Structures are given as structure tokens and as C-alpha cells.
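Example record for the data management plan.
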Amino acid sequence: MDKSLQLHQFNFWANKRVFDTLKELPTEMYRKEVESVFPTIADVLVHMYQVEFVWLQVLKGETFEDIFNSIKQLHEELNAADLKNMQMKFEGMSEDYHNFIRGNEDLSADITVHHPHFGTLHSTYADLIQHIVNHGTYHRGHLSAIVNQLGYKGASIDYIFYLYSLQENKQTS
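Corresponding structural encoding:
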């Protein structure tokens, strides 16, 4: 399996596990404020989704200027969403990434990104996909910390658990 596709599938798997855990919490925990890097679970998810949205548009060839012009409406929509709707949005985004990865003939191909704050980056599609997955992993850690701070147990979402789940799925099929 292509490494970028596997990393994307890990990202989907880990997000699903987080959402499964969050759905077990009392509804009011979604917007309950805590002292953390982000004030609420909802705020972390909004940030994660927006970043995935932005980078998918970049991978598709959109400019940051065009993307940033559309982000305000997206931000308002995400802030109004409840947990169930956020999960649906993440699942849709995952499908969009899956289609992009499957439809791209060469993920090792070069891409040049002109970011308004960070400058020009010469990279590959595969490296940017890895960045997106790493970003998700980083913020799923924030979610686990918030869930633990609220008195509940977070999901086990390390990459190694994903690899074990793949092995288990092969043995049962």
C-alpha cells in the first residue's frame, strides 16, 4: 500500500476513534471550557478541520489568498456544528483526501507552495500529506489531554495501535 494512503487511513482511523470516545461523553463536555492550549473540544476540532481543509485546497492547486477568502464562512459553519455534524464533516473531508490521493498519479511529484507568512516551500505531495497527518496527531493529543482533564479517558490512538488493527483485520478476513 502507498505510504501516503496508509498515513491518510491512519488519520481517518484515529479521528474515528476520537469521535467514538467523544460521543460517550455527556453532551455539555463538547463546549465545556478548560485551561488548555484550546479552551474546548469543539475549538480543537474546528482548528483541525480548517487546517485539513486549507491543505487539501493547496494540494489541489488553490492559492492561500483564495483559500483564506473562503475560510471565514467555513469557520462560522464549523463553530455552529455539534459533535455529530463535526464527525460527518471529518468523514467527508477524509473521503475528499482519499479521492485526491487515489487520483494522484505521483505523490512524490514536486509541489511549490507560496504561503503568505512562511514564504515559498518546495516539497512533494507526499510530504504535505505527512504534514497533515502529523498535525492531526498533534491535536488529537490536545483532545486526549482535554478529555482527561474533564475526568474521562481518552482514546488509544498511537500509530502502533493502528498497525495492530490492520494485522487483526487481516487475520479475521
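Summary line stored alongside the record: Residues 125-149 form the longest helix (25 residues).
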